[in-house]
Each structure stands twice: as C-alpha cells, then as structure tokens.
Specification:
With 68 residues, the protein is an alpha+beta fold. β1 (2-6), α1 and β2 (34-38) form a beta-alpha-beta unit. It is flat and about 40 Å long. It has one domain. The chain contains 2 helices and 4 strands. It starts with a strand and ends with a helix. The protein has a two-stranded parallel sheet. Strands 3-4 form a two-stranded antiparallel ribbon.
C-alpha cells in the first residue's frame, strides 16, 4: 500500500507537525506501507506575511494532479 501525505509543514521547519509526520511514516513502514510526501519544498514559495517561517506554495492548475 502507498499513502501520499500532503502537508504545508515540513523540513526545514522543526515543530510538532513535522515530528508527528516523520514518526507516522516510520510506523507505517513497519506495516509495509510506503509513504510519500507532497510538501511546499517542491514548489516556488512565498513567506506568509504574518508568520514568515511558514511558506505558502505557489503552483499552476493541474501541476499537483500531474505529480500524483
């Protein structure tokens, strides 16, 4: 089985969401479940004006569908 996790919180951020997703991926691996991540790291991003540590992904229509 394969699972795609889509998240706006991923490395280099260090927070509870990232930590939880990493642990979940490790746990699923022990059940022979392959996990992939769709994160802002593969897109052009802009910092959120009120919280610049969070980056908003910019994409074209259909781009995400082609990645899946």
């Amino acid at each position: 089985m394969r699972i795609l996790m889509v998240t706006d919180a991923w490395r280099p951020q260090v927070n509870g969401v990232v930590h939880t997703l990493e642990r979940l991926s490790e746990t699923l691996k022990s059940f022979d479940v392959e996990t992939d991540f769709l994160t802002p790291n593969i897109f052009r991003t802009l910092p959120l004006p009120t919280y610049p540590d969070i980056r908003l992904a910019l994409t074209r229509p259909g781009h995400v569908a082609r990645l899946i």
